[in-house]
Structure formats: C-alpha cells, structure tokens
Amino acid sequence: xxxxxxxxxxxxxxxxxxxxxxxxxxxxxxxxxxxxxxxxxxxxxxxxxxxxxxxxxxxxxxxxxxxxxxxxxxxxxxxxxxxxxxxxxxxxxxxxxxxxxxxxxxxxxxxxxxxxxxxxxxxxxxxxxxxxxxxxxxxxxxxxxxxxxxxxxxxxxxxxxxxxxxxxxxxxxxxxxxxxxxxxxxxxxxxxxxxxxxxxxxxxxxxxxxxxxxxxxxxxxxxxxxxxxxxxxxxxxxxxxxxxxxxxxxxxxxxxxxxxxxxxxxxxxxxxxxxxxxxxxxxxxxxxxxxxxxxxxxxxxxxxxxxxxxxxxxxxxxxxxxxxxxx
Amino acid sequence: xxxxxxxxxxxxxxxxxxxxxxxxxxxxxxxxxxxxxxxxxxxxxxxxxxxxxxxxxxxxxxxxxxxxxxxxxxxxxxxxxxxxxxxxxxxxxxxxxxxxxxxxxxxxxxxxxxxxxxxxxxxxxxxxxxxxxxxxxxxxxxxxxxxxxxxxxxxxxxxxxxxxxxxxxxxxxxxxxxxxxxxxxxxxxxxxxxxxxxxxxxxxxxxxxxxxxxxxxxxxxxxxxxxxxxxxxxxxxxxxxxxxxxxxxxxxxxxxxxxxxxxxxxxxxxxxxxxxxxxxxxxxxxxxxxxxxxxxxxxxxxxxxxxxxxxxxxxxxxxxxxxxxxx
Lengths: 327, 327
Hints:
2 copies of one chain form a homodimer. By secondary structure, chain A is of the alpha/beta class. Chain A has 12 helices and 16 strands. Chains A and B meet through helix 5 of A and helix 5 of B.
C-alpha cells in the first residue's frame, strides 16, 4: 500500500513514519511506499522496508492537493496545520492552511472521479472545546472553540463527517490530547511547561513551572499519538457511524500528580530541578483549557492510551532517552 | 440606519422587510434604507417609510460581497441559502452558496479596513443536529448534522462565533425551528406536510398527511421568525458571550396535537379535509429529525415564540387570511 502523510516532517508525522518502518507493514498489509509532505523536507526513517519520498509543498495552494493524490494513496494521514498560537496571530494564514488546505485535499479526493476512496485520518484537537465546560467533557458535548485554530479544527471535523457520509472517502477524525512528553528543545507554547518540567529535569536541566500545581490537564504520550493513527488507519470504520470525530483517550492529572510521578520514576534530585516561577498570563490561558474528559466512544472502538503519568514518563525515557536519565 | 437583507426575496426576508415598513424603525432608530439582495428581485414592501432597493446578485461569486457592503449597512441579515434538499442533490452548489458565500460576506466585512463593525444575523437551522439525540435537545448538545445543508449551517455558526470573537463584526446566530404555517402553495419538501395540513384545510382544500399522528416536531410561526430577527438585531449582544449560535424557542407537539388544535380553532369540518396517505419514505426522513428542545439560553436572552399550536394557527389566520377561513 501507498501512504501519504501530510505534515510528515512534524513530530507526530515523523514518529508515525518511523513506526511504520519498524513494523514493516500496516494492518497486515505490506507498505510499498510512504510519501511525507510538508513545507520543509521530512527526513527518511532508518531501515525502512519501503520506498520513501519527501515532498515539499504548500497544501493551501490550489492544485497542490491534486498532485499529492495523483498516485492514489490508499491511506492519507492529514497532520498538516498551523498551530494554535500562529493561527491566532495570523488570521489569514490559519484559515488558508487549516481550512482551505483541508478543503482542497477533501475536494481533490471527491473529484478524482475514478472510484478513488482512501482512508483519511484527520488530526483534530481538544481545542475544539472552549470554556466553560464540564469537569469531564462528554463525547456529546458541543464544540465552542475560543481560538481560530479550534474553529478551523471543528470545521475540518464537520467536513470530514459530511464527505465520509457522502461516500467520498472513509474518514476518521481524532482529537488529540496534549502530547506529553514532547521531545526536543523547550517549547514557548503556553502548554510547553507540561513537557518541559519532565523532559528538562530528566536531562539534568532546570525547568520553569509557571502555573499552580493544582492545574489539571489531559495528556497522552507521543507513542500513544502514533498508536491512535495506526488504529485509525486499520480499524473497521463500519463501527463508527456518521459521527467520525472522536475524542481520543488520555490521562487526566494535576501538575502536582505529574511531579509526584516524576519523583517515583526518577527520584527527588530530578524533581528539585523544577523551579516555580508563576506567570499570571500563562496561568490565565491554561485556566480556559479542558481538564478532563469522559471519552467513551474512542476506547470502545479500540483506541488506547496510558493509564498513569508514570507510564507517560517511562515512555519518554524509553523512546527518547534510551532508557537512561540524569539522576 | 441602513439594513441589508441577503435572501431578501424569500418568505422570511419578505416578512421581515414588511415588518420594518410597518414599524417604521428598528430598536428606536429610524431606518433610512433597506437593501434586499437575492438571486431574483425582491418586491418592495407597501407604504415603506424608507428607501427600498432590490438587488439581484449571486453572493457566491467573488467580489459580490464587497459590493453589497460598500455602503456599510449597520445591520446585515443573512438569510441567503440553498435549502436542504437542493444542497443534498447538488453538493457543489450547496457548499458554494451556503459556505463560500457566507465566508465571502464575513471576509468582506473583516477586510473593510475602516472600522466597519456591523451587527450580522446568521440564520441557522435545527438541521445542525443529527440523530440520535435526546428527546429534548439541550443547548450544550453537539452538532452532528446528517445533511450537507446542516454541515454548512454548523460551519457558518463556527465562523460567526470566531469572527465575532475576533471583533470583525457583532454576530448573532439563530437556529430556526420549522416555520409553520408556511404561506403559499403546498411545498414538496419532506417537512411541507406540517404546514399543508393546516393551511390547505383552512382554505377549503384537502391536504395529505403522509406520517403517523405520533410524529413530534418543533415549530414556530413566520411571525415568530421575524420576531427572532428583530430581537437579534436590537438585543444587547454583550450578554451573549462567545457562544453566539442560539437555538430559538419553539413549540413541540405531535401531529395529533396539531390536528386537535386545528379542531379547536376551526372546527371538525376543517379537520375532515386532512387525508391520511402514509408515505414510508417521508416517515423515514422525519424519524431522523429533532422532536423537541430544552432551549434555555435564547428565551433567557429575550427571544420568544408561541406557547401553543392553537396560537400558531391563529397567527396564520390573522397574518395570511385576514382573520377568516373556510369553515
């Protein structure tokens, strides 16, 4: 099979392709080729048993989507997006890429005209929800985003459902939790501290905690994010019905519980590297974020995530640090 | 003030403009001009104390929205839409007019660049909901449309909220109940019988009831629909918050209750003109429609509708039949 990954140079896209290279197949099928599209070149996975192609293009330019599907990939994983902060600062760019780009893709598939009907995985976000909401957001709670990014993702979900209902493709929308622990350098995103306070101390570095330890949030590891994609790519979609946007499972905990998990996994010395530097601006932003979910449909459909924050930390140590950390 | 009505030649648009002509003003302000845009020419209201302009144009053509707002109307009532059945049959046309047309309008306002910030009323529909749903759909229930029309309306609501949140205009989204009793000739829409079984018998004509008398649905009169627009145009929008798509109040009743109300208002002879001709296709379509709502926000914000079906019938007799019917 041929797999197209839009946004294939990003963190989740890269890990997904690496997983495909390790697994050598998907859902019992051999993979002939993986095409990774992004605005900058994706690097090839190590030891891939399939052809790998990195394409740089801008999905939001008319005609690009048609080129991307010209080879009729059986699976399309659509991870390409302008992130929340940038979509808020640059209104036009956010709508052009997150909304128009998605429509170009969906319409290119619809208009292929040769019976083409790929599986399409659309990554959405818990940013489709906006405060006030219930302490545990149910699967049937309404989407009232408070960012342009969340609006664009909610619209993408609606389009995915309608295009699937009309039979143009076989879509699965997955709303990702905050992915934690993100590898790489400390992130300036408002959500960055959730990862920073784990990753940096394990690396022997100090990290800043800008919010109260009572802040509660919804997490899953990068390994789980890849697992969601694999499951969405291989599941029996006849079980989903027309409501194809699914809140993925995750683990809800407070920052205090994150720190306690770090203490258990890595010890007091590591925890001491977390410095409290309250930032009322970040505190205010985070206060508007979902804290917990009562996500029932996705687990019932076979999606799984971590069931403790210790597990999330251990995934990071295994997958990013080769099993070791700076004690 | 200058008021622009998009879809101004349709039933609700026409009645709204006639109401403005009778009232002579809106929210205590004098009306200088009303522009009615549609794909066919709107007729002028009788005895209007304001200038009236009928424009024919296609909002879904690039550049048309800019022309429509060139005079910077303070109030824009956006009723223009391809209806449900047609949007389902002609996928491209539905998206072009209901989604692209709406975006052209919203973006033209956003890009005006001279501090222009009109009140924008967007008429949505209970078609944003798709079965299965609760017997009474709450204000926080999710929108999972099962038609392309409902999808386009749900997307319009999301855009309206985001553009309002960003300060580009002051939007109010109103989800209309099924408008009953619709004046005019019997309608072939699946929902047409709700009006036909009242309007035709009052006119001395037979009408066909294609579904079970146990079918329950959600109604408001054309007079209430106009009242929703007037209230949305004049209300204090600082009370709404960012969730600007509101399920309008309505009256929920079964077809049996509709018929009983007709009996009370008009007598047994009129009721006898309803013929039962079961149509399993229409029965199936109607089974997927909302039956009732627990709409709390809109009434709390001052929107009102009828509180009995007898009242809905009397509104029809008063407004359309000059107070008389064929007994």
